[in-house]
Amino acid sequence: MDFQIHVNPAAIEGCTPYDITFTDWEDPTIILGHATGEVCISSTVSTKNNPSQSNLSVYPNPTSDYFQVSETPGLKYIELFNIVGNKVRSYDALPQKQYAVNDLTDGIYLVRLMTSTGKIIKTIRLSKR
After folding, report:
1. 31 and 69 part of one domain
2. Could you give the CA distance from residue 49 to residue 36 in angstroms, rounded to a whole number?
3. Which domain holds residue 27?
4. Same domain membership, residue 59 and residue 34
């Protein structure tokens, strides 16, 4: 039996549990199998191999008006996602720039830091109050 599961099509990092029941196509009351587990998506550059990236930060955090990113070699783009994975903003990264979030609703956001080739350097949680 072959099947495909598409998890996290927006490529947002994180883990999610799954619980799958396989039933007969013609008679769904016949259970053919069951599978459970957890799948995790991680495409960041490991900070174990890049100790300088382990010090990356987004500040102030929490914030109400704007955020900044610590100096990051290779940082080219910043993407901001809401907690359900929808992209709400994209920014070109510039040294010491303030990125406005004052018009966004309060909540938790994910700040994705990316290189010019689209490789994810790190994703950091940002609290907007």
Report:
1. no
2. 32
3. 1-42
4. no
Global confidence as pTM = 0.61
Residues 83 and 119 reside in one and the same domain: yes
What's the number of domains the chain is made of?
A: 2
Neighbours of 81 (CB within 10 A): 19
84 within 8 A of 109, measured Cβ to Cβ:
no
Check whether residue 67 and residue 37 sit in a common domain: no
Q: Which of 120, 126, 121 is nearest to 11 (CA)?
A: 120
pLDDT of 52? 46
* 22 and 83 assigned to the same domain: no
Measure the CA–CA gap between 124 and 75, rounded to whole angstroms.
14
Beta strand pairing call for 14-23 and 99-100: unpaired
Residues near 46 by beta carbon (within 8 Å), at least 6 away in sequence: none
Task: Dump pLDDT digits (tens) for 54-96.
Answer: 578 899 999 999 999 998 888 999 999 998 889 999 999 998 9
Contacts of 13 (CB under 8 A, 6+ apart): 41, 42, 43, 44, 110, 120, 123
